[in-house]
Amino acid sequence: MLKFAIVKNLVNSGAIKIVKNLVIVESPAKAKTISKFLGNDYTVMASMGHVRDLPKSKLGFDPDNNFEPKYIVSTDKKKVITDLKKQINKDTTIYLAADEDREVRLLLGI
Questions:
Q1: What is the pLDDT at residue 1?
Q2: The pLDDT value given to residue 14
Q3: What is the pLDDT of residue 90?
Q4: pLDDT by 10-residue block (mean), the chain, 110 residues
Q5: Which of 32, 38, 44, 73 is most buried by its number of CB atoms within 10 A?
Q6: Quick one: pLDDT at residue 94?
Q7: Tell me, what's the pLDDT at 11?
Q8: What DSSP letter does each residue of 16-76 carry, written as one string?
Q9: Is 21 left (phi over 0), alpha (psi -120 to 50) or beta?
């Protein structure tokens, strides 16, 4: 109960901001532009590009498990992921606004 009271006091004081809607884009420039169009109920943050990739030193998928990909988090993106996680809680709606590049087209089959 004490932990909840401390968090509630931090939220009420403005020290912690609870984000209702988080929009994640790839670049800071896009984050700045998109945030101009969305209201105060939205927070827009940049992932600074791709945050995970297939490993370079070994096979990037499991052929025995329906070719499931084996992603790794890029070492230079760990802080970005930590910062994004700080903005969310169980009530946060997350929107991934990916660039329409070839990776997205491959994922969507277009």
A1: 41
A2: 55
A3: 83
A4: 46 60 89 89 86 81 86 84 84 82 56
A5: 44
A6: 87
A7: 52
A8: S---SEEEEES-HHHHHHHHHHS-TTEEEEE--S-SEE--SSS-SEETTTTTEE--EE-GG
A9: beta
| Closest C-alpha to 29, from 12, 48, 11, 16 | 48
Q: What is the pTM of this model?
A: 0.66
Q: Identity (one letter) of the amino acid at 103?
A: E
Cα–Cα dist 99/7, whole Å:
35
Half-sphere exposure of 74 (CA within 13 A, CB side): 10
Q: Are 22 and 87 in contact (CB under 8 A)?
A: yes
C-alpha span between 31 and 56 (Å, rounded): 30
CB-side neighbour CA atoms (13 Å) of 49: 8
Which CATH code fits 17-101?
3.40.50.140
- Determine the length of the chain: 110
Token pair of 58, please? 């070994």
